[in-house]
TrEMBL record:
Residues 315-351 have a biased composition (Low complexity). It comes from the Bacteria. InterPro entries: c-di-AMP_regulator, YbbR. Residues 352-361 have a biased composition (Acidic residues). The lineage of its organism: Bacteria, Bacillati, Bacillota, Bacilli, Lactobacillales. Residues 314-361 are annotated as: Disordered. It holds the Pfam family YbbR. It comes from Companilactobacillus heilongjiangensis. This is Cell surface protein.
Length: 361
């Protein structure tokens, strides 16, 4: 046995067995090449992805104004998963419209791509777009302001409006520029506003029918400041009788001698240094006090007042009448007493005459 192990034939046999084992191990499918198989499977997996890409123009945009095309389009790509993922993340390709050889007018043009890997298949939506190519024109316009004055609180009015900037640059097709009737901003004032309006407002280019013209505005918004104020002044009040009454001897008293009135400049100009305040006496039968709402009493002469109401004492003159009636009654009594005195005197004279006659007898 020892001779067999030490012989050269034994080692040759062992080497042959090992060689045969390695041969069968390598050649058997699914064994020994798992890693290479996985790599191969990964490279053959396909993937699909859809995303949005900016649409570019190949045209002389300084000379022509082009409309009708979308800013972005959707593209769907399909191919090896790793390549699809990389393409979606980097977007290292272009979708474009080639308009260089097209004349003025409308054209239906196919969207093309450049830069996509040849291993990828793709589809673009939309595939075709209709563009309108016109001569380009640029013009400056002053900005007008249009707002609803009815939203101002009663008595308030606007001052000089500030627009910054007060002009905008309008770019578009020459035919569209010709349609522009005015460039305006339309600030929306809160209802009942009492303070200055100060906001950024969108600029619009309108035709004579008030419809928006398809042009580009620079800037697209402007700063609009509308001062909103109310005028006021201090005036004395004159309490005046109003309403039907048989009594014409009313007198009025109030601790308030002057008030501050508020309103528009025209309302202030129409009132001097004093203002008449009517006091309704149609329901007054005796001395009384009334609270006069100055807003109701003054009507549309002012917007409002400070204070908004005053207390007025109304004297009917009834106390004087009672005094006169008393005096008249006293006079009658005096006259009666005088008559009685005269009668007594006459009686005394008669008695004296009778005495004289008796003496003569």
């Amino acid at each position: 046995m020892k001779k067999i192990i030490n012989s050269n034939y034994f080692y040759a046999f062992i080497a042959l067995c090992c060689a045969l084992w390695l041969f069968f191990f390598v050649s058997t499918p699914g064994v020994g090449s798992t890693r290479n198989s996985n790599q191969s499977n990964t490279s053959t997996v396909t993937k699909r992805a859809t995303f949005t890409v900016p649409l570019q123009l190949q045209a002389d945009v300084d000379k022509y104004y082009i409309t009708g095309y979308p800013e972005n389009v959707k593209v769907t790509i399909e191919g090896p998963a790793a390549l699809v993922t990389a393409t979606k993340n980097t977007q290292n390709f272009n979708l474009y419209l080639n308009l260089k050889d097209l004349s003025i007018g409308q054209h239906r043009v196919q969207i093309k791509e450049s830069g996509l890997n040849s291993e990828l298949t793709y589809s673009i939506k939309p595939k075709y777009v209709t563009v309108n190519i016109q001569q380009r024109e640029t013009k400056k316009f002053a900005v007008d302001v249009d707002y609803n004055k009815e939203f101002l609180a009663t008595g308030y009015e606007t001052g000089k409006i500030d627009i910054s900037p007060d002009t905008v640059t309008v770019t578009g097709a020459a035919s569209e520029i010709e349609k522009i009737n005015k460039v305006i901003v339309k600030p929306i004032l809160p209802k009942g506003i009492k303070s200055t309006f100060d906001q950024e407002v969108l600029v619009q280019a309108l035709d004579k029918n008030g419809k928006t013209v398809n042009v580009t505005l620079d800037p697209q918004t402007v700063h609009v400041k509308i001062p909103i104020t109310i005028q006021s002044k201090q005036v004395t009040i004159n309490l005046k009788q109003s309403g039907n009454s048989n009594n014409s001897n009313f007198t009025f008293e109030s601790d308030v001698k002057s008030i501050r009135i508020f309103g528009t400049q025209d309302q202030m100009d129409a009132i001097d240094n004093s203002i008449d305040v009517p006091v309704d006496v149609s329901d007054v039968t005796g001395n009384t006090k009334k609270s006069i709402d100055l807003g109701d009493a003054l009507g549309g002469k002012v917007a409002f007042t400070d204070p908004d109401s005053i207390s007025v004492t109304i004297n009917t003159g009834s106390s004087s009448s009672s005094s006169n009636n008393t005096n008249s009654s006293n006079g009658t009594n005096t006259s009666t007493n005088d008559s009685s005195t005269n009668n007594n005197s006459s009686s005394s004279n008669n008695d004296s005459t009778e005495d004289n006659n008796n003496s003569e007898e």
